[in-house]
Design a protein that fits this description.
By secondary structure, this protein is α/β, with parallel strands linked by helices. It contains nine helices and eight strands. Helix 2 crosses helix 3.
Length: about 325
């Protein structure tokens, strides 16, 4: 397995809590990739506690939103872990800045493996939280991994849908997909000839005056002291140009309506991405005999990145998350 060099000093975008113990850990997935994570354990912990693995947003690192969620949930009595996905952050995997519907779903399952065997976690009480693009992947993991007893998808993207159909499904045609695939295949040849991988760029900087609101929303998080981090793809050079190509013809939520475990899908009312959660929830409960433990929570006035860090208005309903996991991880 890979030997990772982990940053030991506190370098998060949020303040360190005095209610939890923090440590760096590593674990591996079934592809042999070593992943890096921050483990948060309540200082008052006794015995084995319910545990939660957290990841996201798509193009972020564990020092940003996922770590904030993990530390906050640990303050409420859970063993939590925020991890960097394969190919990103402090985690291993080559080439860098790639994404995969299969490998990234496996990252969640590997996190469940780690927590199931951790001496302070209860293997029968494990949940996951996915933020943004990792919200969709968390649902995908919940549809596959029966050990996951509760899932929260926060301000989610369906990365397969957006890659195949574009924003608001505006590119949902065979011709549009063909043109996109042509461009990506041409880029593959350029990468191969140059023995390297071109990056697509993170959040646009400088910000154009006529940028749509959702771009301004991302800029306000990733490109300012609020959420900037040196290892974040979105804060810097972005994904490999061909990094998300495999999502185009590999839908990730094919069996979401067979999820039996509890799911909370939450999204900001004013988020450009809210349709992902509304549609994912509708598809998940359709013809599902286990629909009673599924919930869609729409948060008034909140935009997409408000559910990354609260947006300065405490938009993340942590009390609701604590109640949800306490009820379903027992």
């Amino acid at each position: 397995m890979e030997q990772l060099k982990l940053t030991q000093q506190w370098d998060k975008t949020f303040a360190k809590s005095d209610k939890v113990n923090h440590s760096k850990v590593t674990f591996h997935n079934r592809y042999g990739i070593t992943l890096a994570a921050d483990l948060y354990v309540p200082i008052s912990a006794q015995g084995r506690l319910p545990a939660i693995a957290v990841c996201g947003p798509f193009g972020a690192v564990k020092e940003q939103a996922s770590g904030f969620y993990a530390q906050t949930m640990a303050e409420h009595g859970f063993v939590t872990m925020a991890f960097d996905p394969s190919f990103t952050g402090e985690s291993g995997g080559e080439p860098r800045y790639m994404a995969s519907p299969d490998i990234n779903t496996e990252d969640y399952q590997a996190a469940v493996d780690f927590l199931s065997l951790h001496e302070q976690a209860d293997p029968d009480k494990i949940g996951v939280i996915g933020i943004c693009g990792w919200g969709g992947l968390a649902l995908n993991a919940a549809a596959l991994d029966t050990r996951i007893k509760a899932t929260v998808a926060s301000t989610m993207y369906d990365m397969a849908r957006i890659n195949a159909k574009g924003y608001f499904d505006a590119e949902d045609s065979a011709d549009a997909r063909y043109a996109k695939k042509q461009a990506l295949c041409a880029q593959r040849l350029e990468d191969y000839k140059n023995d390297g991988y071109a990056l697509g760029g993170g959040v646009v900087d400088p910000l154009p005056e006529d940028a749509p609101f959702f771009v301004k929303d991302y800029y306000d998080y990733y490109k300012t002291p609020r959420g900037y981090h040196a290892r974040s793809l979105n804060s810097n050079g972005g994904w490999n140009v061909i990094g998300c190509m495999s999502f185009i013809n590999q839908p990730i939520l094919q069996y979401s309506n067979e999820i039996r475990s509890a799911v909370l899908v939450m999204h900001g009312e004013k988020a450009h991405s809210c349709y992902f959660s509304r549609d994912a929830y509708a598809n998940m409960v359709k013809n599902n005999p286990y629909a009673a433990n599924k919930e869609l929570l729409i948060i008034p006035d909140a935009v997409h990145t408000d559910l990354y860090d609260g947006g300065g208005k405490n938009a993340i309903p942590f009390d609701k998350l604590v109640d949800f996991f306490s009820k379903n991880l027992k």
